[in-house]
Design brief:
By secondary structure, the protein is an alpha/beta fold. 42% of the residues lie in helices and 19% in strands. The chain folds into two domains: 166 residues, D-Maltodextrin-Binding Protein, domain 2; 97 residues, D-Maltodextrin-Binding Protein, domain 2 (3-Layer(aba) Sandwich). The termini are far apart. The relative contact order is 0.16.
Length: 336
Amino acid sequence: MKRLKLLSALVSTELSTVLSTVLSTLLTVCLISLGLLSSASAQPFPDKTIQYIIPFPAAGESDLVARYQAEISARKFKQPMVVINRAGAGGALVWSALNTYPADGTTVVGVNIPHTILQPLQEGIQYKTEDINAIYYYHFTPDALMVSADSPYKTYQEFIAAAKKDPGKMTLAGSAQYSANHMAVERLNKLAGVKITYVPFKGTGDLITALIGMHVDGAMGYLPLAIQQKGKVRTLAIATEKRNPALPDVPTFKELGLNWVDGAYRGVAVPKATPLVLQQKLSDYFAKLNADPETKKKLEDSGFVIVDVPLAKMPAFMKEKIPQAMDDAKNAGMIK
């Protein structure tokens, strides 16, 4: 009888252990699915490094955010990520090669709207908008009209008055042809009734020296650059609904009588041949990086507007943005 009780106890213990293991495994699977495990388990590729290619020079908005994402990825989520700058043709050099990169999920490329919508309209561009397989868009950067802190133009009104006095003589720097900056300059020409010449640079990082040194009359950049270079540049207007706390004395274009709230969206893309399960995995991971409280605060304080466009919402997002960008370009006089 004692032996039977002992055997029963042993079986009960073994059964409890098995059930406990099974339940623990099931719970782990559920937590992974819901994204509720520790930061270490959030790694999409624990034993590999994600190659994050930015198609612009260092020090621009795309580069700065990518490097911060890479730092957070390694420090908080233990996922190695390295940023690689491959500037050329205003981003088109990399975007044209996107679908030739390894499709194993370890290579992601920074992408911008409206750049990837408008650039293919140019003769000689080697990619089409539909070639860009974006998996996540993480922020929006409003347009900003800037001049050097040493510029004689103290206000938007003074700048526009000078442009009207000498049509075609004044210049505004920007990042790339057929980009958000390019479209913004053409919009300014149309809405303000001026003729200012657009001077394209490889990226935001490249135009900073020209702007501060007054090799151009000003720049049509983005709000983060205006905040980052505060003291070295004077911002005359920003394309937001309301004034930014970091630049409380800078008016919005709407305040100045121009119906203008616009800028650029940034995100990441992978080669089309990347398996859907890996695309989803990366989309989820960048969403996790974007939702991190430390990340959000740093970016918002720097002038970035956080957005959350995951893989599942991409078709609807692009369906909205493509005709919008085309209409904006037509209204700005960039295309007929």
